[in-house]
Predict the structure of AAA family ATPase.
Amino acid sequence: MLSSNNELFKNVPLRITRQLFERADTDYRVYAASMLDPKLEIPVDQRGELTITGEMAHYDEGTVTKMDLLYDEPASHRYNKPSYQLKAVHYGLPEDAPGQWAFLTQALAKSPATLGKLVDAVPPNEKILDLLLNGSLLDKKITGVGEKTLLRLQAIVKRNTDLSLLMAAFGDRLTPIAYQHVFDHFGDAKRAIKQINTDPYILIEVGGIGFKTADKFALAAGIPRNDPRRIQFGMQYVFATEILASGNTFASIKFFVAKCTDALSVAPVDVTPQLTPEAGWRNGFVVNTKYQLVTTMAMYVKEADLFQGIMKAEKQRWPVLEEEKLAAAITEFEAKHRVTLDDQQRAFLTTANTRGITVLNGAAGTGKTWIINVFVQIMKAHNKKLTLMAPIGRAAKVLRDYTGHYAGTIHARLGLMPGFEFAAYTRQGNTDAYGKSDFIIVDESSMLTTDLAWELVRSVVYEKRHLIFVGDAFQLPAIGPGNFLNDLAQSPAVATITLKHVYRQGAKSGILDLASTIREREPLPFNAAQPAYLSGSLRLYNQRDEATIANTLIAAYHSLWAGNGHDTNQMLLLVNRNKGTLGRMQMNARIQQFACPAVPGQPEYVAPYVNPDTEEPDTFRVGDKVMVLANDSRAQKVDPNTNRRIVATKDDEDDVAASDHVDYETTVITNGDTGLITHIDVRRHFLVVQVDDDYVYFSFGGLTNKIALAYAVTVYKSQGGQAAHVLIGLAPSGSMVNAQSFYTAITRAEASADCYGDFGMLTSRLQIVPVEHRHDLLKNFLSGRLDVDTFGQQPVAAMRDVLAPLPQAAPVPAADKQAAPNKPRLTVAVDPELLAMLKQKKQNHK
């Protein structure tokens, strides 16, 4: 049957067959499904299947559901199968006994034992779901089915009925997945409907629903564009997407008002009244009229916490290792290795041993990692304990390789969810993560956002241990708000040792010489007219044609690959964008053809759709080098010997879905981690990637948004990594090219670096230093230009009370006891008007 675009088909019964796609950090998914009613005239393929796209919950294979579907002709061509956009999911419960038993059978598809016991105990003509809802089954003793199981089944049934009530109340003003988020947040449809009707912007508090969704809902409900509540939440949204996303932690009031008026389609007069100090406080902002600056209360308190934590650490000055023993250990090391430490190196060893916080800053080649290794070996020899960390796994691995001491990620050590910075402010950090460690060393500290630095600084008990930050303040700034390492390195209040002498010379001197030239803003040794610049193992070629650059890079990579025993870890190809002839995607596809070609009979994953940039389906094979694209704090671990996930615990047999519900051991992986595909199971639809020491499970569903080939990566993604030979290809547009990105790119090389790009573009773009365009309050606190308690015009302690009130069980000062009455117990009453409204909607629908 032919169909036209945007044709709507209602009440289509479907069985989910498999997940085809999942967009990282969103609810957008694509499923393949089969029709359950062959009599319905709806376009399907020869196997009776179709494709569904949209924001959806996770559906297991075999799930039966009923949906409203809108035919999508462009997607049908993309997936080469009749494709539909999801418009609605039909919830609610069957009213007849057979239908209710069919629903229960679906709910217990993975618990056949529990289903069998219920079938034996309850006659088939009984309405089993009604018995669950009214509690009759709880009173009836059913052998082998406990109260816990029945309560969970009751919750499943209530969820469906409540979702039906929500959809009856609001129709298509929310997506099907949004209704599930609403129910999960409120736990009761009637309460949710009443509160949302009172204030639509309460939806922002619901996980999975952001300002844009809530705003669209509220505007559809008739809320004026200049409504104060809309302005309040809109300002928070604009600050996150325009100010924090640009790396800044504050903005001028004038600039912020302009951004808000543009994003919210309102007049400046609608926004300005909300940015007085008093109104700002109510709206979650700190407004300083003297300097005409604004920041969020949460960011202000984090920067204040950071400053106060650093000052607290500075007061803790005591030697972990007795000073005489350290001096003797340094002398012994020099004699044993026939080296003489310079003054800066000695200063670092003694300062880090004594100060609460120490910063080790230095350009590439100045021996930061070498002196850290010296420090680690001396302290280990004297039975001192150390914790070594880095912001990402790749950098932790480099640190581990240099020192021979285990190093992990900050997120894993502190148990942080990647992306945690979007969570609400909390008072307490993790202060029990370091065991008996005497020192915490954090490498690649230039990658620390304000949020991650805040978690780190407050996690250390400085009376017990010292904290050491290591990094190159000229590398690319963190992808997120703040300029943390720069702030510390430039502050006279923080003990900072800056290594200046370049020790790595020889063939690599050309790389380090140019890196130093860029860093120090000296005149470049090449110009737009010359064909090439060659210095030691650094080779720059002036090329302007993108296709020529791409072909040259591929040939160079192949030559290095052949000459290094096919070890792709020895090579790193860096580009400055993702798409196009010289983009990451096309370069990876071309390298894969010879680095990991298809082998007859060997399993591989082939994406179910064509990548529009490469014009081929994305493909993964065993042996492919890949990069993680999405943060995951609960990535499931796999036993490499069996290629099965490692079981942690298993539910009791009496539980819902007990026979199949299993908890697995997990690990933390972060966006940018690299690994190797070690196993592909096309029958069970998963593959395994070795990421550092862990083997991680990836289902095929949405796989191309979870991992990508990593023979070629962007410069931003290369931070923290190194390779013997680095190849760099820069598109003529110069997008994402600047002094710090180019500096970062060439200093990834351990032996040689070859770059192909337009010298005219380079000489122009290397004048731009992004870190100079960032601004934060921490730097001003550390320098003494601003005072923490006077800039905000309110004490920081008062802001903490607003953001994270103390628990009610906490002692109340005597003077405040009358002002803190006991909170009344929450009760939920049935609203007759609400029930009448829903009944009327149901009648109208019929």
Notes: The longest helix spans residues 147-170. Confidence is low (pLDDT under 50) at residues 651-660, 810-831. DSSP finds 31 helices and 33 strands in the chain. Residues 6 and 71 are 5 Å apart (CA to CA).
